[in-house]
Write a structure and sequence with these properties.
Elements lengths: L2 H10 L8 H10 E6 L4 E3 L7 E7 L2 E5 L2 E6 L4 E2 L1 H6 L6 E4 L3 E7 H10 L1 H18 L6
Antiparallel strand pairs: 1-8, 2-7, 3-6, 3-8, 4-5, 4-7
Helix pairs in contact: 1-2, 2-4
Length: about 140
Amino acid sequence: MTVAEQRLTLERIWLFEGCNRAELARIHKAAEEVAVPEGTLLVEEDEPGLLFFVILEGRASVVHGGRTVADLGPGEFFGELALLDDRPRSASVVAATDMALLVIRRRAFQRVLDATPALTRTLLRAMACRLRASGADADY
């Protein structure tokens, strides 16, 4: 995929909607596209978080305590929580189908967030939505 095609892909992902061209280029530079087969364990519950993932193609299952708690598809993301709070992964994520993913390593993720306020705000809103949906949104 060329740089121009990659930017178009990023522009179509709602997480990056508020980003300008320079910010999209920065994200592209930080990201690596990875293909994984069905059944791949992408992150493991209680393990350290080193990567942030955005799903380009395919589906993934989120498993917490041995129970599937969510299914994710194209345009959705995971892995940010452990990178933000430096604590172990709160769930496992397994490729439910063959997948294409954008992957950003911890250090690059921090640099992208520092340099991309629009992405940081969108990520915070998305995390708030997830928290509310989980029922753990005590307002204190």
